[in-house]
Amino acid sequence: MQAVKATRGFVSRHLKAENHHKIKLLANKKLNVISDLVSKALDDETNSDEEFSLVLSKLNKFFDKKEKIRLAAKSSEGSLINRIKTRAIELVQKR
Prior knowledge:
This protein has one domain. The protein is rod-shaped and about 75 Å long. By secondary structure, it is mainly α. The chain is built from 2 helices and no strands. The protein has helices at 2-43, 49-94.
């Protein structure tokens, strides 16, 4: 059982690191898009409702995608850990 706990910890840390990396990439991408939109608005010295709505829309999309990444990571962590547990139980029962 100690091996299962160790494996579970490793899998959990690996999936969290992968999840963090995906969110970081998404954040950088959305930050660039939002920065471009704000720069454009500042360059023409007008801030229309359309430009403001577009920035808010991009920000909301970021938060939605971030939450989807988190939910997917939790789901895959749970299923992977369950497969490891099942396999470990099978191996113990064969002994």
